[in-house]
Sequence to fold (380 residues):
Amino acid sequence: MSSMNRNGSEVIYIGDKSSNRQRNAPSPDADRKEVKILFFDLTYYNTTTQFLLCCAGVFVLYLLYGYMQELIFTLDGFKPYGWFLTLVQFAYYTVFGYIERFMERVKTPRCIPMKTYVLLAFLTLGTMGLSNSSLGYLNYPTQVIFKCCKLVPVLIGSILIQGKKHGPLDFLAAGAMCIGLTLFTLADSQVSPNFNTFGVLLISLALLCDAAIGNVQEKAMREHKAPNNEVVIYSYGIGFVYLGVIMLVTGNLFSGIAFCMEHPVETYGYAFLFSLSGYLGIQIVLTLVRTCGAPLAATVTTARKAVTIALSFVFFSKPFTMNYLWSGLIVVLGIYLNVYSKRSKLTFGDISRICTWFYYKLAPHGRSSASGTKKLLLEV
Fold:
């Protein structure tokens, strides 16, 4: 584009302002956050497609995870070897972590201090070891219901340890979970031949470890900017060393190896699928949290647990009572209230104001009639 100025010289404009703005403006792709699940890049899919793919991955992988875990414990004589299964699972997770790190060519040094990993490994061992061992004493649906109620120890721990304040919906959710969990456990104790109170103790301790590990892990990853892959390798690798030494000292290591060598496909083979599905499932859940937020991720994982419980009754023969259904629905109500509380900022002060409003809405008739009676008495 050119024009003549007053002196008659020609002035040439290279492009106009709008084209310059368009040239300097960032492209839409530059604003996109990278979304990857292992080697699969989901960055250029829209948000709905990313959510649906993550949901499909969570359901497929964790349903396989639950099926394989319960299938392993149906093997005759395997129930005492829950801790050995945990040892095998930790070994698989560590190997998977190193493979992923190698494939992504990650060469960054360790971010989190080793003393933190020592604690994380201990808590991870308690969570997964106690959870696996509890299946020797409880039905799988009962174990899953207990896992759904992780909010209760997390809520208590955050109040006692971190001094956090929670709203009434959080306490209402915890109360609903406690009631549903109690009713589900009572129903299981009445109809299940495998029920054992020692299993309840094991899964309760696993929940306490799980509640603690969440706070420690979140704080460490936030402060040191550590990648998920590093946390997996060190947590499960050190946990493998812990458990290996303990089982070697107690003499349970060689008995576990001997038993599994007699049934290699049903133990090592099933454990491989069990561990692989769990490892991939963790990655997808973390991606779901990053892209869609924790409340929506919690809703998806809760729906997955409900389907897992239903399929457990379909694929594995076990007694059923309607009390399972009612108590399970109470737990689901508690989970929904917990998710809703993240969006609703309802406080105890709000509840007090609502109650006061209802009181004054309903009470004026009584007060006016009482004052009218006093007036009449005075006039008489």
